[in-house]
Amino acid sequence: MRWPAVCGLILLCAQTAPGFTLTGLMAQLAQVGAASASFTETKSLALLTTHLQSNGTLDYKAPDYVRKTTLAPSRQDFTLQGDVVTLSVNGEVKRFSLSQAPQLAGLVAGVRATLAGDLPELQRYYRLSLSGGMAHWQILMRPRDAGLLKIMAWMSVTGTGDKITEIDSASAKGDETKMQVNETVQHGQ
Amino acid sequence: MDNKLWPVRLWLAALLVCAGLAARAHYRTDMGDFLPRAHSLGQAALEAQVSGGGAARLLLVSIDGAPAPVLEALNKDLAGQLRRAPEFATVLNGDDTSLAETQRFVWKHRYLLSPGTNAQAFSAAGLHEALENGLALLGSDLGGVAAQTLPADPTGAALGLAQNLTGTGNGPRTENGVWMSPGGHATLLLLRTQARGFDLDAQQRAQAVLTRDFIAARAGLPDAAAARLRMTGPGVFAVQTRDVTKRDVTRLSLLASAGAVLFLLLAYRSVLALGLGLLPVVSGGLAGIAAVSMVFGFVHAITLGFGVTLIGEALDYSVYLLTQTQQGGDAQATMARIWPTLRLGALTSIAGFAAMLDSSFTGFAQLGVFSMTGLIAAAAVTRFVLPSLVPVGFFASGAAGIGWPLRWIHYHQRSTRLVLAGIAALAVLALTLHQGGFWQTDLLSLSPLPPATQKLDKTLRAELGISNPRYFLAWRAGSEDQALGISERLQPVLARLVAHGEISGYSLPSQILPSQAAQQARRAALPDAATLHARFAQALSGLPFRGTAFAPFFQDVAAARAGPLLTAASLPPPLALRLQSMLTQTPRGWVVLTPLGTMNSAADVHAALPQGVALVDLTRQSALLLDVFEHEARALAVYGSLAILAILAVFLRSWRLIARVALPLAGSVIVCAAALTLGGGKLTIFMVAGFLLIVAVGSNYCLFFSRPGDDAMTRERATASIMLANLCTVAAYGVLSLSSIPVLHDIGETVAIGTFLCLLYGAAFAAPAERQDI
Fold this sequence. Notes:
The complex is a heterodimer. Helices cover 26% and strands 49% of the residues of chain A. Chain A contains 5 helices and 11 strands, in the order ααββββββααββαβββ. Chain A has an 11-stranded antiparallel beta sheet with strand order 6-5-4-3-2-1-11-10-9-8-7. In chain A, helix 3 packs antiparallel against helix 4. In chain B, strands 2, 3, 4, 5, 6 and 7 form a 6-stranded antiparallel beta sheet that branches. A 4-stranded antiparallel beta sheet of chain B has the order 10-11-9-12. In chain B, helix 15 packs antiparallel against helix 29 (685-705), helix 27 (618-652) runs antiparallel to helix 28 and helix 29 packs parallel to helix 31 (742-766). The longest helix of chain B is centred in the N-terminal third of the chain and has 35 residues, at 234-268.
């Protein structure tokens, strides 16, 4: 085992509360049957001199339905149900299958698998590290797929208990997205 | 002596000539050559596609029978091997790398490929509008992806192309880099052979390489032993058809001949006589091949296989001669006596088969020529050659008692007549009550492929997203580039139809490869570096973009301005495959056939199309073909029967005699048809040809049965000869009915049943009452 890896491991263990594991957290999250939230999103892109801001709502229904509705600055609907993505912008509807867009699949699978508490699915796409405790946790995800890595260098999901509070991501080029989430959850399927 | 031998010498000479012609004839196996000649543009396009198009090179592969991870590994190993094999031009398996080549190509040549490359798009205002759209896209949920491409492609040239060219459409889903079937039980590959679809030997080699590499890949993986490879596609079908045909024709014909030979040996008790008995049919076959080859320029394999069954009647000729020669008799004298009957029998058959000459199915016209020539030659050999070759003193010593069942029928003529008439009446009833049409309307049922193979092909096509669209657009052009030009002029028309909801979608060759003129215009629309920089700076005003980020855009536009135009040779294999599937080079120029989506009204779409572009409705085309088929089947039956009746009328000149011959034949065909369609069965055109054959063969029986003025001894030999002839026929055709090839099966079944019925009906109705004689 090489040094940096060992260092990382030790650091990670130090930051995680005793007895708090990914498996445990995921089991907690898997209890959530449905959730809805409002969000505000800020994008800072290398390409732009200003930030892009938007807000809207998020809906989740176990096991595999996620919808992101952007209300401002303009209306957009992004729905993921099973394998099918439906994107509706200004009344123009695009529909495609996740299996045809493996990189996008990784992107949305990260969020959905976290919501669903589906650890194997999450690990399929990402290398994971957990920090914090049940009251305040953060999962850092680094894509395994080289194609996905081009779009997104890392993503982190922050939460308290079984609620997600923030989803951040960044590209290798320095584009950053911060999404603040205010979530209410319902338990049971 | 010389005088007696000249027919033999002439025959030998003719035989040599025919054998020479047969040896040098072109034999074809293409089903397209058997079907009606193409008249319309649509038919021509379809035919061109079938015989030489890119679609004919496709090989659809499925691997199942192992756990998903094993299947995925197998798929990857196999694809890797096949990509190195020279037999395959394209190997697609859902692997990102196989898609990456296309993506790279589209990205690199986006300005030449995109219809959006024009002066307006590269004006300051056009660029400003594009950047505004880009900004909106960055804010959207696909912003992450857009941020990657925008610096190099602010005009979104690649964006419009991506969906059309690199998308797999409704293709299979990808799992861990390989295609999986919807149920996840099989992994899929799509191959294109280097060889043309109708080069069957090369197709067979490619399939062997595929099988070999699969077995090697399977051996190299744990837990893969139970994995199974299945393939379909036009090439696989063609090779299978050829193999099944070869196997059935050789094996079953041998078996069928063996049955006939056994009966003949029992009756003749002489190998020499057996050999002599085969001379007419062999001579007839050779003459038939020679004639077809001379008239049509080629001989279809079906003509060969089927034609030999049609002239099987010629075997009966020698049976009549050899069996009816009595002990101490002379073959020459027998021939002189039976020739009028034999001649009339042969004439009726020839008249019946003449109905096939006019068929628009090339294959049937060939069969007509083959069987008529064959029978004329066989009858001539029987008449002029055979008697002089029969050894003096020969008689069929084993045939004496063979006719007893027929004598029994004669003896109980009244009761057998009643029973047989009753059966015929029931048959008529069954036919009138028959539900759902008599004709087999599924052309696939004529294909020699087993239904399981056809079903596998359907499944794999659906799973791989290779649709079988119903509508096509077709047009002709003098050159490939001209074809692409027409395609470009069609695009706005089709786009308008899509916008109005008239059609659901379209696919055009110019979307894959624009015409040289269009590419030139697009290249010319790209501004030089200084102009582009100036306009872009202007376009950026008022937008929050960092101008320095767009360096890749300026580089790519400069590269496209300096780059060469694209040709078919520059396309990556998947796109070349798609282009080939739409464009076919024929001896008379290029034919384009492009799929069209579903539509509201074919008439409206047709009205919107420019002159020279045809809307092809595949369903209607097949329906038209079926109409022709049905019409021909009926005509064959009606004209054939009329011709036979006319010949009988001319020669027999007695209503009583005509009725004696014709009524048993009618009864036999009716009962046979009822038996074949019992329980909702359908008649195929091969069965109709079989009916003609029943009449051709059966008319001989009836003519011999009804011969007036023969003494009891002669009649007994005649009865024995008919019985022997029928035994051989039923044995031979009965064996053919075991074939999996519809042609052979249908004809075998029909003729075996029908001629046996002719024997019964002929004995009961054609022969004059025997009681008075006793």
